């Protein structure tokens, strides 16, 4: 199974990226998780550009999303919303034919940040993603390490549920 991990933060010391790296570490051998690291390099979304010549970096992101069984997202909240750079990345995926039905797992590293998670769910549902709610993980990572047993366990349980959902035939 192949999963793509998307972090909503560009910070080098991002807690969200840290959670995704922890998920990579604990994943069983049968589950390969690739962390996409070029969100900050994507151009601003523009339908004129999308319709004329799709930038290679966007085409590559779409190829990577199309190729995986599921997408894992860990995204922070900025001013009660989705960080602009991450929403920009999602906007580039809206017009992608393979996105509808794509299983998505959400990791929230700050459970008090409810606005961005709600907005993310709304955006992804509008994009016809398959939100795998039973795989959602909410873990407070501020002032904590992703190596703590309780956090590792929460991530492991979420990943197991996600892998199960990605493997099962879709229930419509
Ligand atoms: C510009 C800015 C706005 C923020 N707004 C909120 C907010 O509205 N609600 C919240 O819970 N946290 C807010 N935060 C805190 C971040 O969500 C938090 O620091 C998070 O850990 C950042 O993610 P990262 O560690 O992956 O970079 C804000 C942080 C910044 C820099």
Overall description:
Strands 1, 2, 3, 4, 5 and 6 form a 6-stranded parallel beta sheet that branches. It contains 6 helices and 6 strands. It has a single domain, classed as 3-Layer(aba) Sandwich (Rossmann fold), CATH 3.40.50. It starts with a strand and ends in a 5-residue tail after the last helix. Helix 1 (15-26) packs across helix 6 (149-167). The chain is α/β, with parallel strands linked by helices and 172 residues long. Bound molecules: flavin mononucleotide (FMN). Residues 9, 11, 14-16, 76-80, 110, 112-113 line the site of flavin mononucleotide. Pfam families: FMN_red. This is Putative flavoprotein. Residues 1-140 form the NADPH-dependent FMN reductase-like domain.
CATH topology description:
Rossmann fold
Radius of gyration: 15 Å
What is the CATH-assigned architecture? Answer: 3-Layer(aba) Sandwich
How much of the sequence is in beta strands?
A: 15-25%
Largest sheet: 6 strands, parallel
> Which H/E pattern describes the elements?
EHEHHEHEHEEH
SSE topology sketch:
Blueprint: E1 2-7, H1 15-26, E2 32-36, H2 47-52, H3 56-67, E3 70-74, H4 84-94, E4 103-108, H5 114-126, E5 130-131, E6 137-138, H6 149-167
Parallel strand pairs: 1-2, 1-3, 3-4, 4-5, 4-6
The structure holds flavin mononucleotide.
The site of flavin mononucleotide has 13 residues, from helix 1.
Domain NADPH-dependent FMN reductase-like: 1-140
GO molecular function, one term: oxidoreductase activity
InterPro entries: Flavoprotein-like_sf, FMN_Rdtase-like_dom, NAD(P)H-dep_reductase
């Amino acid at each position: 199974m192949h999963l793509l991990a998307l972090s909503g933060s560009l910070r080098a010391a991002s807690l969200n990226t840290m959670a995704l790296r922890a998920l990579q570490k604990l994943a069983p051998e049968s589950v390969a998780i690739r962390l996409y690291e070029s969100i900050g390099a994507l151009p601003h979304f523009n339908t004129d550009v999308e319709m004329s010549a799709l930038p290679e970096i966007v085409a590559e992101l779409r190829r990577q999303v199309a190729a995986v069984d599921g997408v894992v997202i860990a995204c922070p909240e900025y001013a009660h919303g989705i960080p602009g750079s991450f929403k920009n990345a999602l906007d580039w995926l809206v017009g992608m034919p393979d996105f509808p039905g794509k299983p998505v797992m959400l990791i929230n590293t700050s459970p008090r940040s409810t606005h961005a998670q709600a907005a993310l769910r709304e955006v992804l549902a509008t994009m016809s993603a398959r939100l795998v709610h039973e795989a959602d993980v909410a873990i407070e990572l501020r002032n904590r390490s992703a190596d703590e047993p309780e956090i590792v366990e929460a991530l492991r349980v979420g990943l197991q549920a996600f892998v199960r959902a990605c493997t099962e035939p879709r229930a419509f």
